[in-house]
Amino acid sequence: MDKAPFLCYQYFMINFEKLERLKEFIRNAKKAAVAFSGGIDSGFLVKLCRDILKDNLVALAVDSQLMKRENIIFIKEYCASINVNLRLINLDILRFPQIVDNGINRCYFCKKAIFTEILREAGDNGVTYVFDGSNADDVDDYRPGSKALEELKIISPLAEVKIKKKEVREFAKIIGVPFWDKLSDSCLASRIPYDDKITTQRLLQIENGEKYVRSLGFNRVRLRNFGDVAILEVGREERNKLFSIEIFDNISKYLLNIGFKYATISATGYIRGSFNEFIKNSGGVSYG
Description:
The protein is α/β, with parallel strands linked by helices. Helix content is 47%, strand content 12%.
């Protein structure tokens, strides 16, 4: 007897039950704010909360030096497209010495600063419950910022219901989130080695460099900023597109023009979470 149909049905029912539990979790809040980073996790949560809570939802996004300009534009456009009340909070994140110093706990201080502002804005809008998009997979990853969320009593509905990243994408597609397959990203500071100072110039170099490389047809791009040295990573499945003298020359010329003295390319390519395994054992900081 072929068990495949039964297993597919069983998988569907388990996932359906998770989605229903998530909906009930949101209904019980009655009114909530969602911290929207522009990623699929918080984007899915914004859409689902909008469907359930209607006008009793406010989306909160923080515009700081660590956010790409195109991401801020995306957040504004998406919230407008589904008629969500968006509050954009401007934050000079580099005014915090612990973040600029970029120590191994930078992510903790960064999350603490960002979500303190989000909580303040939520309170000003009469909202008690603040949701973030952390999912069940994040619990097992190296994320020092999670401690800050716990201290501030930020609620993570996806993690509470044990919804994993793959399931987030499946549910997002079902409820009509157009960017359900959007690639994961991380803040610009994650491209700078810990204990190296974070500056506006270095962040702009990273943002502009990655934007340029993506304009050449690459999807997964990380530009590691080691001061004078730029190390470019592209998706492992995209590395073959680099094997062109013209591409090499164009990338090198651009990176040198924005202030780097040396432009190099990683042979291994970008592997999500590969550095986190090292961090778990060494006490370092997470690189996205």
